[in-house]
Amino acid sequence: MDNSEPEVLLRRPGRLGHILLNRPKAINALTHTMVKEILAALNGWEADDGVATVLLTGSGERGLCAGGDVVAIYRDALAGGGATEAFWADEYTLNARIAGYPKPYVAFMDGLVLGGGVGLSAHGSVRIVTERTRVGMPEVGIGFVPDIGGTWLLSRAPGELGTHLALTAGQASGPDAIALGLADYFVASGQLPALAAALEDEPSEVAVRRFAAADVPPSPLAGQRDWIDACYAGDSVEEILRRLQAHPAPAAREAAEAMRAKSPTALKVTLAALRRARTLGSLEEVLDQEYRVSLRCLAGTEFPEGVRAQLVDKDRSPRWDPPVLEQVATERVEAFFAGLGRRELGLALARSRP
Questions:
Q1: Domain Enoyl-CoA hydratase/isomerase spans what residues (predicted)?
Q2: Is 71 exposed, middle or buried (0-12, 13-18, 19+ CB in 10 A)?
Q3: Which pTM was predicted?
Q4: Packing angle, helices 237-246 and 264-279, rounded to 10
Q5: Alpha-carbon distances of 339 from 250, 297, 313, 347, rounded to whole Å
Q6: What's the pLDDT tens digit per position in 264-314?
Q7: CA distances (Å), 237 to each of 162, 211, 242, 301, in order?
Q8: Which among 40, 158, 206, 273 is placed 20 to 30 Å from 309, CA to CA?
Q9: What is the CATH number of domain 8-352?
Q10: Which residues form the catalytic set?
């Protein structure tokens, strides 16, 4: 791709407004410019009677979107974090806009759909996965906490499936994503171009029904609900780990091993965020909470260290501080959720205004 090419391509075939993420070499990782262009397109198309349906797709063969441009966020964090604060404010506003969009918003969740990519797709009204789909919220692996409304989505997944995915930074298949409530329909990846063409002139419900599989393949994750629900119902990360380590299922012990490699602080804040999100009444309230937590992560030590170890120096040896769960004080976790004063995102307040 030429560097002069737009990062987002906006097309208007027939009655379709098509948003194509156009950074294939970066698996369409989101930039602030992309977020603002998508938001502007949605605002314009809402009032355009010539647009009946919106479609989101990603260019290239690797996936819809690998999330935010984490290395750019890391560099900004080292410089003070002002650019990222503005980026997240617009990104979370976009997530809420997608969730409340009055026209069908169809997302092709083909290939990798991670972090911010989940925010662009899983809040939509028509979410389509394929046999190539891999959905994940990998934040705890880099000392961060699921955001973009991820704690809203995962906290409302059946049983403790969402807690498992968040605390292990695991990836879900297409059928898993449907079981989690992150997607609606399964369509073979080879059929997506034909479905996109059909959406140009047909109502989305008619076109999708014609291409969607009548029998969705079974979800491996849903088939493990017995040990997942039993283990992740614990009230603390320490208790969850004890249950996982004691459970006879090999997958439970594998999950414990995956968690041990993650930031102890990020694990505890993530569990607290998920439990709090269950009690909040709207996506906007959860996004406001996530904004507080994200800015605290940006200003802290764990996120920069996690990105350094995984993506910058790539030594895969993060030095978490503190290094063990028992040293992460309750007061430290609570501080992530404290109000921001004038810096509050305020989506819930804006939603409540007439």
A1: 17-337
A2: middle
A3: 0.95
A4: 100
A5: 41, 14, 34, 14
A6: 999 999 999 999 999 999 999 999 999 999 999 999 999 999 999 999 999
A7: 14, 42, 9, 20
A8: 273
A9: 3.90.226.10
A10: 68, 116, 139, 147
